[in-house]
Amino acid sequence: MKRLIFPDLFLLSVVITLVFSAATTSSTQAQQNGKANEPKPDPNLIAGERPLEILNQLGLWQEMFNGTDLSGWTGDTQGYVAQDGVLVCQKGGKNLVSEKEYSDFAFQFEFKLEESGNNGIGIRVPKGGHAASDGMEIQILDHHGARYQGDSDFGGGKRKLSWLKPWQYHGSIYGIVPAKTGYLQPVGQWNQETIIAVEDHIMVILNGAVIVDAFLDDVRPVDGNEHPSMSNRSGHVTLAGHSDRVEFRGLRITDLATPKPLLKESVDNTPPDGFEALFNGKDLSGWKGLAHQNANERRALTGEALQQAQAIADEIMNAHWSVSDGVLTYDGQGQSLCTDRDYGDFEMYIDWKIPSGADSGIYLRGTPQVQIWDPWDARTKSDADAPQTPEDWVAAYKNGRNLGSGGLWNNQRWRNSPTTLADKPPGQWNSFFIRMVGEKVSIWLNGKPIVDRVKLENYWDKTRKMPIPRTDQIELQHHGSELFFKNIYLRELPY
Questions:
Q1: Long-range CB contacts (within 8 A, 24+) of 49-54
Q2: Which of 10, 11, 137, 434 qualifies as a cystine partner to 174, CB 3.0-4.6 A?
Q3: Cβ of 138: how many Cβ atoms within 10 Å?
Q4: Whose CA is closest to 169, among 130, 212, 214, 114?
Q5: How many Å apart are CA 19 and CA 27, to the nearest integer?
Q6: Helices (H) and strands (E) in the chain, counts
Q7: pLDDT tens across 50-62, in order?
Q8: Which residues, including other chains, have CB under 8 Å from residue 229's CB and lie 6 or more apart?
Q9: Could you tell me the pTM of the whole model?
Q10: Where is the signal peptide (predicted)?
């Protein structure tokens, strides 16, 4: 009898298909389960990457402890000792105070606690002042210690309770801002901490995670008390001992004090130490065209639409922006010029020159603007006589040109004009120094302060209540005038 091979092969193929399908389904489910079981990225660790990277790129660290003695420190020099490269606060140790004072800085160190150990880092502490009340104290504390908690019986069993207040946990700005918890290493292990203080912006980064990120101008102290020292702008760094043994090592500081607003004569387009040149004096490297005149629409562009818009914008840029004898030159016929990188907090030098009657500005984080214009332009028609009476002159200057350049002219709630007219006449070079921290901007024109920590309002929000983006591009504004720029230097500040 002839054997029937086909049905056997058919059954075999069905079995193989079922087995393969089951294996594939099992593998897919395993992969999905594996992904589901993977820990989610920690946003506080992610937030810590950028400021630490900026600080390391600046390369301005200065050692505050030489590992052998207490050089550079005053105060309780008997309560602290140097042992094998470690700075030890001994039992009974109190306050060790830096000889130097600091305004804006990043202070980085490692520390190791004993059980229930307590210390603190005083910042902007006046000479002879108390760290927490006369300055601000960042807690150094084993908040898991037995000294700060006990057992309570709720009827259903005992539970551990801490009698620490939220602003007393490690890393908190004592009495002012509570810190996030969960990042302190167990007792006996080394921790690394970075404290950043730039104007009213205070950050505390513990073992890579941001546990405090506060703008003090916007903070109401969590303990309900007045803390006038929140407005301190400089002072000493203090190791605020509380009689417990605490070990420190790797103490170093980056001084971020505001530099002089007017650079001494130097070779054009050569940045000072710590700054990078945004314009190399040779070509348009590092710059791009404006992809959309409305920042909200521009930020919404993605994928192919963004590529196409940017390609068109770059063509316009190359047609109207050029470099001549080390000067970035604009013919007035195209669109604004933009950095090809986004920036958050920074300091920037920029020299600019305009012809008579010109109008321009500098957009910070894609937001208008630091005003540039001719204060002496009465804007009379070509066939009209110049104003004759004071009233005529006032009417001619109704849009504020006569107040000078440098104001945040599109502000509606905050001040929009400079405090003084500091412009040089059209045809001469002017120098801006711009400092941006959070939403607030300070500006010097030709060495004179003209804007002091004024909030830059969000022009792209009709209510002017939404904050500006944390990062975005810097733009040199097109306003139909010829423009000239050089010596554009920028230093990022950690944020």
A1: 49/208, 50/494, 50/495, 51/106, 51/194, 51/196, 51/203, 51/205, 51/210, 51/494, 51/495, 52/194, 52/205, 52/208, 52/494, 54/492, 54/493, 54/494, 54/495
A2: 137
A3: 27
A4: 212
A5: 12
A6: 5, 28
A7: 999 999 999 999 9
A8: 124, 133, 134, 135, 136
A9: 0.89
A10: 1-30
Q: Which residue has the tokens 């007219």?
A: 421
Q: How many residues are present in the chain? A: 495
Q: What is the Cβ-side half-sphere exposure of residue 431, based on CA atoms within 13 angstroms? A: 14
Q: Are the beta carbons of 360 and 479 closer than 8 angstroms? A: yes
Tokens 């950095």 belong to residue: 339
pLDDT digits (tens, 9 = 90+) for 51-97: 999 999 999 999 999 999 999 999 999 999 999 999 999 999 999 99
**b/e per residue, 352-377, with b = 16+ CB within 10 A?**
bbbeeebbbbbbbbbbbbbbbbbbeb
Answer for the pair 167, 175: CB distance below 8 angstroms, yes or no: yes
| Contact yes or no for 236/127 (Cβ under 8 A) | yes
Give the list of residues 6+ apart from residue 132 with CB closer than 8 angstroms, or none: 120, 122, 174, 175, 240
Please identify which residue in the block is written with the tokens 């390609």.
311
pLDDT of residue 419: 97
Structure tokens at 28: 């897919």
Tell how strand 448-455 and strand 73-75 pair up. Answer: unpaired
Query: Can you give the C-alpha Rg of the chain in angstroms?
Result: 30
Q: Quickly tell me which residue has 């309900």 as its tokens.
A: 224
Tokens 């020299």 map to which residue? 351
Whether the upstream peptide bond of residue 293 has omega within 30° of 0, thus cis, is no
Mean pLDDT within 32-55: 87
At residue 262, the 3 state secondary structure works out as coil
CB-side exposure of 185: number of CA atoms within 13 Å? Answer: 15
Distance CA 492, CA 472 (A): 13
* Domains of the chain, first to last: 43-255 (2.60.120.560), 276-492 (2.60.120.560)
**Can you name the residues that pair with 300 across neighbouring β-strands?**
none
Q: Judge contact between 112 and 189, C-beta under 8 A.
A: yes
Cβ atoms within 10 Å, residue 250: 17
Give the separation between CA 410 and CA 400, rounded to whole angstroms: 12
Torsion of CA 401, 403, 408, 414, to 10 degrees: -120
Q: Please give the DSSP secondary-structure letter assigned to residue 400.
A: S
Q: Where are the alpha helices (DSSP H) in 260-302?
A: 295-300
**What is the DSSP track for 415-466?**
--S-SS--PPPTTS-EEEEEEEETTEEEEEETTEEEEEEEE---TTSTTS-S
